[in-house]
Fold each of these.
Amino acid sequence: MEKHHIEVMLTEEVVNARIKELGEQISRDYAGKSIHLICILKGSVYFTCELAKRITIPVTMDFMQCSSYGAETKSSGIVKLAKDLDEPIMDREVLIIEDIIDSGRTLSHLKDLLGQRKPASLRLCTLLDKPDRRVAEVNVEYVGFQIEDKFVVGYGLDYDQKYRNLPYIGVVEFDS
Ligand code: IMP
Ligand code: MG
């Protein structure tokens, strides 16, 4: 691992306050219904749990994981499932929870895939969005923060599997 350090981009207080707002907004938007959260492993685990605690309508959850692949495969835009959902989503109000949307490839693929299973509704919620990096068109209904094109860690996001447990969002700065 290259020598680096982490600089705080969004403090724990700022992130938690925004998640609380998102939870309130989602609870209002889905009032009278129950919502089925789909957590995209592993990065979204922290955000999904914090968000779920702030939602006041009935919540159920399921988990899905996309397989990791090398840089070469990534540029081809192929996304494979390492773990599918445990339950059907037909006729349910489905909200996909993602940690960050970068190129948008993962999410545009997942949205197509889950859309074929005929949910009552299908929306997307991401903690972070890097709009400058978008390659694949994807409609995102709930965004925590739009950030510039920097490599970030914490709150579930990793650098080589490290730093997921940081309670804030930090930028990886490489020491030259
Ligand atoms: P994409 O939107 O298909 O390009 O992929 C998004 C995925 O790339 C996320 O779920 C993360 O796993 C990873 N990713 C993108 N940007 C970052 C970052 O800044 N830090 C850590 N992981 C990232
Ligand atoms: Mg991820």
Amino acid sequence: MAKRLDKVVVITGASSGIGRATALEFARQGAAVVLAARRMAALHEVAEECVEAGGRAMVVPTDVTDQRAMQALADRAIDAFGGIDIWINNAGVLALGRFEDTPDDVFEQVVRTDFFGTVHGCRAVLPHFLDRGEGIIINNASMVATIGQRYATAYAAAKFAVRGFTESLRQELVDEPGIHVSMVLPAAIDTPLWQHAANYTGRAVKPMNPVHPPEEVAAAILALVHSPQREVFVGAEGRLAAVGNAMAPSLVERAIAHTIERDMFTNRSAPATSGGVLATMPEHQGTSGGWRTPKPKRGFSWTNLTLFLLPVLLASRPLGGGAVRHP
Ligand code: NDP
């Protein structure tokens, strides 16, 4: 029989998508999960599933943009379970639209949630880990933490910030061998993130192909607990884009800009909405957003075509040809 994971795990953004899938994965291993997000009813549903799956669960309604609420989350987890072993900063929101069409308050809330939510989480748990001399922080960034994305200026800025913050914090902890700080960089994942997104593009949006199941991210997070690493990409697209961007930024930037235009929209128009960014949306609480066909198509995808052509293009560039431009 597999050994139980006797750990206490705090997960923000646990009411849907990747956070929910991760909570379930840890519960299946026997962990105690502390579930945080704004939607209380959804969190209670996840807690019930976690208990059914073999774990222990506690719900703490929390807004990650509120530092005091995040401190209260850490305190309640410690009171209930005697300590925290793993803290996962996962809560996030997405806003899509040209920069000039994205309202100020929506832009700021994306940065407050995705970046400051992560900062608040680290601030809340780090003193506890330093006292104990051990603990694991896992920050869920995105492949967009390594390469920009048109129509997502706030999201990309926040995720780049998460990456810079995570790398810098890890350096500060270089003499704390028991404390690990890791980052996950998922590609497009089948979650309700896209239904929750603020949208000022005028068009209905969808994740770009290929779309990976949220359970892949949950498995990557669990693997980081067993074998900590600096960062892990989920989906080959992220690593390919990061490598391509390091080698030929202007070429890759253009290719990705065109791919997004082609592959991130459906044929339908869509009214402007702040989605679940400024206030919660009661619907869309599942792990999946319903973006994958039952049998994943192995066929054509613009993202794959672009990314697989990149190495060919790069290899065909003359050595020392001065073509790599750093604007
Ligand atoms: P979901 O929309 O399903 O999940 C987002 C979670 O964040 C929800 O539980 C939501 O809960 C919570 N949340 C949002 N705002 C706040 C807030 N202010 N305070 C507390 N919780 C909040 O999408 P995903 O599961 O996809 O997103 C999870 C993470 O994964 C995000 O950081 C996202 O950027 C990242 N990611 C997702 C990718 C994808 O393609 N889906 C790709 C790469 C990264 P509630 O509304 O109840 O507060």
